[in-house]
Specification:
228 residues; globular
């Protein structure tokens, strides 16, 4: 066997790929926690009371760029032991997408805050009970849109309004992606409700990987149809 062939085989077996992925997940998780900790710590300490929703939204601001950077670093994974630069790729994605991601993240948090306050004070504003169902459905729909928009913003360079349009378009076109993201949303909501936001944060890199893989049909379609 030639030295070139041996070099190609080294680090490309199933075990090596698994080790490389685990290493990347661990590094990305640590960096995710590092960048998100200014929001996670006060978010965990807040009481789960509707009056704290605006504060919770403010605490969640650092999470958007952190999730985007995790998605970027995991997207760059090539699956072999020679590909061990997740920290550099995380910071590259964090710097490049910080402002564009906030352009999506802030409106989403604002909408969830308004919807949450509306649900908490339905009786006070005199709205009928069925409005609660509409608000929940709208919040879920907007959250699924935000998941698409976050992924598009992370992996592509489009104007914010184009990202918004593509995210809505692919909610309907790639229904498998929408259903998969809905399942991730249920899992994330369940983890948070049964434990705490801290436990969800500790699974940040794994959830980012699942979001990335669930959204692959959408990102492949965008790559083929909307980029040169």
């Amino acid at each position: 066997m030639s030295s070139a062939a041996a070099s190609r085989q080294f680090g490309e077996g199933p075990l090596s790929r698994a080790v490389a992925l685990i290493y990347r997940l661990l590094v990305v998780e640590l960096l995710f926690l590092l960048t998100a900790v200014p929001g996670i710590v006060p978010l965990v300490l807040l009481d789960r009371d509707p009056s704290n929703l605006p504060l919770a939204a403010a605490c969640a601001l650092p999470l958007g760029p952190a999730i985007s950077a995790a998605l970027y670093a995991l997207h760059r994974h090539r699956g072999d032991l020679a590909d061990l630069h997740p920290a550099a790729e995380f910071w590259r994605g964090y710097r490049a997408n910080f402002r564009p991601v906030l352009g999506i993240w802030i409106p989403w948090l604002g909408w969830l805050t308004v919807a949450g306050l509306g649900l908490a004070h339905l009786d006070a504003v005199g709205l009928p009970g069925w409005w609660a169902v509409l608000l929940v459905l709208a919040a879920v729909w907007v959250t699924l849109w935000a998941a698409n928009a976050l992924l598009i913003t992370t992996l592509f360079t489009f104007r914010v309004r184009d990202v918004a349009r593509l995210a809505f378009y692919f909610l309907v076109r790639t229904r498998g992606v929408t259903l998969g993201n809905a399942c991730l949303l249920v899992v994330a909501t369940g983890i948070t409700a049964l434990t705490s936001e801290a436990v969800l944060a500790l699974l940040g890199s794994v959830l980012a990987l699942l979001l990335l893989r669930t959204g692959r049909p959408m990102t492949n379609a965008i790559q083929e149809e909307f980029t040169a």
